[in-house]
Amino acid sequence: MTRSLEGQVVAVTGAARGLGAELARQATARGARLALLGLEPEVLAEVASQCPGSRAWEVDVTDGAALARVAEQVVGHFGRVDVVVANAGVGAGGPLLLADPDAYDRVLEVNLLGSIRTVRAFLPHVVASRGYVLQVASVAAIVPVPMMSAYCASKSGVEAFAHALRAEVAHHGVRVGVAYLSWTDSDMVRGADATPGLGEFRAQLPGVLGRTYAMPPAAARIVDGIAARRRQVYAQPWLRVLPGVRGGLPWVVERGSKGLAAEAERALRQAGVEATRQVGAGGVADRAAQQ
User: Fold this and answer.
1) For residue 36, which phi and psi values (nearest 5 degrees)?
2) Which of 104, 151, 180, 234 is catalytic?
3) Can you give the pLDDT at residue 198?
4) Is the model's pLDDT at 1 over the cut of 70?
5) Spatial CB neighbours of 21, under 8 Å, sequence gap ≥ 6
6) Distance in Å from the first CA to the final CA of the chain
7) How many domains does the chain have?
8) pLDDT score of 283 more than 90
9) Dist. CA 16–CA 248, nearest whole Å
């Protein structure tokens, strides 16, 4: 049964593209009013045009002061905030040995600190509404793989942050969830596939770990989780089995990827440091915002 979000105000970061945009469209279809936060005003405006009753704000999630101002503006416009989805993220690949240091650190800043700053800005309003915080993590929080150490560290960090936050705010009537996705069709994933070394590495991941999944059904499961205010939300059903075996996964990854990691490193060394910077159109927008 499709659960309604009728009348609820949902703030989504990273709403210009990919998962954020699809969540906005599907949440609107279930009756929510959307606050769309992101870096690309023209692209955000296009998403807003597809989400009646929504409004867009241009903001960098690493700017805590700007987020605080936007949170007040969102409440001023809608009157409340019921749900915050900390979705904004960037990805960059490559081994630590070769990675561009600024791009590597930026992944951590956007994905981890940006998520924390988003929640910090909106949390007083979510407490007031006895609402829900959803942190978008990844299979990378459970299965750490080479060539993606910054991304894996950032997603493991936001997972731990959300679990700790849940216990802090439960007595306020606020619920906290974590969403897990495998490779889901987006600009970021397509950008990763086009990166020398990283694309070839991913293509050799076995079975479900290497597959790219369609965005609409993944987003629909996450919107179901938002409506139900679940603790764990799985965009692909098979992800449910991983928490039970996560203790042994680093050993499996280490044993299975030695040759693949060496090949990927050689390809990236030939491609140069540019190949280790933020991928996809969203990554390009993030790099432009820093200039």
Assistant:
1) -100, 120
2) 151
3) 73
4) no
5) 15, 47
6) 46
7) 1
8) no
9) 37
For 252, half-sphere exposure in the C-beta direction (CA atoms, 13 angstrom radius) is 12
pLDDT number for residue 86: 98
Q: Do the domain assignments include residue 23?
A: yes
* 177: nearest Cα among 194, 192, 163, 195: 163
Phi, psi of 79 (to 5 degrees): 95, -15
Residue 112 lies in a domain: yes
Residue 219 included in any domain: yes
**Would residue 14 count as lying in a domain?**
yes
pLDDT digits (tens, 9 = 90+) for 78-128: 999 999 999 999 998 888 999 999 999 999 999 999 999 999 999 999 999
Task: For CA atoms 239, 240, 246, 248, give the dihedral sign.
Answer: negative
Structural domain including 17 reads 9-289
- Can 180 be counted among the known catalytic residues? no
Task: Specify the pTM.
Answer: 0.91
Residues 145, 206: Cα–Cα separation, whole Å:
13
Query: Tokens 């416009």 correspond to what residue?
Result: 77
Average pLDDT over residues 156-161: 97
More confident residue, 279 or 48: 48
Amino acid at 242: L
Question: Closest Cα partner for 264 from 192, 191, 183, 190?
Answer: 192
Structure tokens at 180: 């897990």
| Distance in angstroms (rounded) separating the CA atoms of residues 194 and 78 | 40
The upper half-sphere exposure of residue 32, i.e. CA atoms within 13 Å in the direction of its Cβ, equals 29
Show the 3-state SS of 65-79. Answer: HHHHHHHHHHHHHHC
**Domain containing residue 181: CATH number:** 3.40.50.720
**Tens of pLDDT along 16-51?**
999 999 999 999 999 999 999 999 999 999 999 999
Residue 2 has pLDDT above 70, yes or no: no
